[in-house]
Each structure stands twice: as structure tokens, then as C-alpha cells.
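Hi R.,

Here's the chain you asked about this morning:
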Amino acid sequence: MKGFFYGWYFKCQSDTQTLAVIPAVHGTGKKRTCSVQIITNDGSWIIPFSADAFRQSGGYISIGQNRFGKKGIRLDIHTPELNIKGKLHFGPLAPLKYDIMGPFALVPHLECRHSVRSMRHSVCGTVYVNEKKYSFQNACGYWEGDRGCSFPKEYAWTQCSFPGGSLMLSVADIPIAGFHFNGVICAILWQGKEYRLATYLGAKAVQIQDGWIRIKQGDLELEVRLLNKAANPLKAPTMGDMVRTIHESAACRAYYRFRKGKITLFAFESDKASFEYEYPY
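And the predicted structure, written out as C-alpha cells:
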């Protein structure tokens, strides 16, 4: 059996605190396991579970006593390294108009397929992480997912919610039929309108260097700069085996500028950006 993984990414963020949670199932050969990863400003933890701890039904995932889905998440983990317990409730989700992968959703044998479940929703509740209280009252949530066999060899990903909008961008090395290209998927919600930049719509990454990314598609241009990372280690799949170490800043400083022709729709710095930058500096 070919290696595989399937997981969701939940980000919950208040004005002062960030909590991200990644439940996943993964396997290689005859070995099948699952895990829950936790990321905060203070650190990151991966908690392994046996395969029989994983359940999926009715649009929900359960791993042990932990439950994840469209109405919220419940966490209950107690190990020597991590004690986490609490419940978070989600408001109405904001899904995209259509699959972020576009026609690439139909291409067989891609090593990784991305999904965006909600660009922005409210989060309410309390979680205790090693006795530290994370309190969310009408806070901001984001939900996405990945499935396949491996994370891309090189990629950059960022997500940021901000007044009036929310965005996600992923640029990755995509191998198909013996050749490679930088694939782009990007969704932007701004003042009630959805913008889409993607390889299948003509988007190109015209710059990827030193944490600075520029995407152009017709008269649209998105510029992203990682200004001050605060990265914590996470585990990522290689042929379904969680042996690769990547680094994510759950909340760091970044710059975003989005232009349409000569008009700047928004330009700002935020210290609430999430960022993974796995290209060489």
C-alpha cells in the first residue's frame, strides 16, 4: 500500500493569543498511525496515537477523546509533555465558491492536494495548554486541509485574517510526469468579495526569495514578505511517514500588499500572520 496522509488545520486567534491544531491520519506500507499537533506562540507538540484511535463520520474527525469538525473542536490530551483540555465553538463557516485546486483536483497522482474549508469564522471557548489559559470570545478562525502522500519538497504557505478580510497563499514545487513547476493557489476575501489567484487561472510566482513572494495574474498582484519569523517545529509526511521536520510561525510579523492594476486594495503589516517558508533563503 502506498504511503498516505490526511489532515485538517484549525487556526484560532484572538487579539493576543494564537492556537493551531492539526489532527491527521497517516500510513506507509502496512503501518497506519494518527496524531494531533498543537502550535502556539510558546511552542509546538506532536502527540502520536494508534490507528484505532481515529474515527471519521458525518464530516467529523475523532482521535481518542478529541473531536474536530464544522461546529468546533474538543481537546483532551494528557502526556508528560502536554496537558491540554477545552472546547471551542465555531460560528458559520465561510467556504470558497469552488475547490481551491480548481481543475487540478481531477489530476491523478498529485503528491499533495489542498482544501480550504473556511476562510473566516468566529471562535468562542476556552482551552488550557499546560495550565495556560487560551480564551477566545468572538475570535477569528480559519480551517483548511491536506491529503496525499508527501508535502512538497519546497513550498511557502501563509495565512492571515485582518479587518475586512482574510487570505491564504501557497506556492509549491509540483512534480508532474517528470517535470517540475511552481504551483500557486491563493484565496483572498476582501470587503465581501472573493479573489482567486492560481496557476490554472494564469498566476505566476515572479519572485520567491528571502521570505519575499510576489504573485502576478493579469492585473492582480499579491506581495507577501516574512518580516520576523517565530517558527516552531512540526512534523510533515514523506510518503506517508511523519519523519520530515518543517517549521511554522503560528503568529509572526509579515507584510501583505494586494493590487489591482494601479489601485492598491490593501497594504498592511500584521503580527498575526501564520507562515511556513520551506524554500532556501
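The CA atoms of residues 116 and 253 lie 23 Å apart.

Let me know if you need anything else.
M.
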